[in-house]
Design a protein that fits this description.
Number of helices: 10
Oligomer: single chain
Radius of gyration: 16 Å
Strand content: 5-15%
CATH superfamily: Uracil-DNA glycosylase-like domain
Order of helices and strands: HHEEHHEHEHHEEHHH
Number of domains: 1
Strand order of the largest sheet: 1-3-2-4-6-5
Distance between the termini: 33 Å
Structural class: alpha/beta
Largest sheet: 6 strands, mixed
Number of strands: 6
CATH architecture: 3-Layer(aba) Sandwich
CATH class: Alpha Beta
CATH topology: Uracil-DNA Glycosylase, subunit E
């Protein structure tokens, strides 16, 4: 019997979301499911909150302006998108790019946890407060950004969301500085 690869496991989770009809109202108004993108054997997983318009159209997370900024920061630490895995908590675009509702995040969380388990990364980087609060609900991003946190055996690194940093130049520098810590944190794990 052939051993199931990490990519096979991810594909199975993606099919399960469709089969389970997760958040049918969101699914109905979205173009497609935006499951995740990148390397199934990655040691870093980046998690945003939900797909936006570009993501919904292309079926990949972080392909708009925030995604380009994320790519630049990856380059800065010597990585490419193909070295990491990128996904969102919520896999369908919320209408008009509104924030995902708590019940939507809750409904998608088990699938996200399965995704993380399938990949088995050394480091989970949360992008923005929604992502952080899914895993570490008691923490505030303004206080813990750039500080690795270990929880239930997994190391998390809370970062500001690249989209927020695009509109706020001081936050942009903070995000770049925090991002630069990733290689150091990986070595320590």
């Amino acid at each position: 019997m052939s051993k199931q690869t990490k990519q096979d496991r991810l594909d199975a989770i993606k099919q399960q979301i469709i089969k389970d009809e997760v958040c049918p109202d969101l699914a109905k108004q979205a173009t497609q499911l935006v499951f995740g993108d990148g390397n199934a054997d990655a040691s870093i997983v980046f998690i945003g909150e939900a797909p936006g318009k570009n993501e919904d159209l292309q079926g990949k997370p972080f392909v708009g302006a925030a995604g380009k900024f994320l790519d630049q920061m990856l380059e800065m630490i010597g990585l490419k998108r193909s070295d990491v895995y990128i996904t969102n908590i919520v896999k369908y675009r919320p209408p008009n790019n509104r924030d995902p509702y708590p019940d939507e995040k809750q409904t998608f969380l088990p699938y996200l946890m399965d995704q993380i388990k399938a990949i088995g990364p050394k480091l989970v980087v949360t992008l923005g407060r929604h992502s952080l609060n899914c895993f570490l609900p008691d923490l505030q991003i303004s206080q813990v950004h750039g500080q690795p946190k270990r929880f239930k055996g997994q190391v998390y690194l809370p970062l500001f969301h690249p989209a927020a940093a695009l509109y706020n130049s001081s936050m942009k520098q903070t995000l770049i500085d925090d991002f630069a810590k990733i290689p150091v944190i990986l070595k320590r794990i």
